[in-house]
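I'd like us to work through together how a protein chain folds, taking it slowly. To get us started, please write out a protein record for me. Go ahead whenever you are ready, and we will take it from there:
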Amino acid sequence: MNNFEFKNPTKIIFGKDNYARLSTEIPKGSKILLLFGGGSIKKNGIYEKVMKNLSGYEVEEFGGIPPNPEYSVLIQALKVIKEKNITYLLAVGGGSVIDGTKFLSSAALYEGNNPWEILTNKRPTLKGMPFGTVLTLPATGSEMNSGAVITRAEYKEKFPMGGAGLFPQFSILDPEVVYSIPERQLANGLADSFTHVLEQYMTYPVDAILQDRFAESIMLSIIEIAPRLMKNSKDYKTAANFMWNCTMALNGLIQKGVPNDWAIHVMGHELTALYGIDHARTLAILTESHYCYNIESKKEKLVQYAERIWGIKNGDDNSKAKTAIQKTTEFFHSIGIKTKLSEYIENYEGTGEEIEKRFEERGLSGIGEHGKLTPKDAKKIVTMAY
């Protein structure tokens, strides 16, 4: 097992009817900016519950943060923070709203003139404006980690950011919010969380026995609840398990002491930036081709995955690895997610070359757990996913 440090300061408040905790978790006298997305919280009752428990605070609102939080929109929110002397941020939404709030947390205290540098300089944010979250859409795990990904449409770019100063102070997780989530977003949440685990697991063995078992338990749980969730999202037990699996998939625990990959995400971000494809679906598009292309370097873990997750006992290691990859694709199909780029866009030819070019221009010379995948390798992997 590799050396590691682990600290996660986010307080999780899990279960139904915990909105009253807002008034005990947010410091008295705070001037709050309430951030949300397209307005669904005003239709499903969450907005009313939140505002009821913020009655003792001065609250400004900023809505309209889109999926794949857009830089230009966030800059408008940053102006509100400055003009209204905001001291506390509250994200009420899914991963996009929370990611956008993390950017604002960093930008609010940024001393430079151009907040875009937070993304391009790749320097961790060690101190941000304090914020909490009310999760409305399980998927990304952003409610219990310090990472975010921000899109800038004018450049067709999507970059990650993070740092120890960007953990939420608290996150309220009420599984009942799952009841009103559309089927497409439920499927996205399942695919996103499952791939998050794969990115931290499907590398090479370092004798991290407990870490492997943690990761495998999350994947097995997602596979078990997926058909139940897609059939009936209004079952509280299923909703609760779905929500907690999404959080545990990317709160930092299972990545400690083991090598991490994240190449699927790096390439997937480009598909979203170029074509606007849902983040989770870009991951599903690239998973099979990525593992097939890297089958030799990942074979030991692929075989372990085949045996422990999919119960594949027969055949040689090569056969087990290939079957496990196919089983993963079948899982995505079982929740209604297509896995070929050509099933999402018509003009897909040349996408691999475009991503190769973008990586070369940024000097992105090596991705994956070994740091050996080149822009040319990325082109081949993306092309295999057509």
Observations:
- The beta strands are 11-14, 31-35, 58-62, 88-94, 131-137, 147-152, 157-162, 170-173.
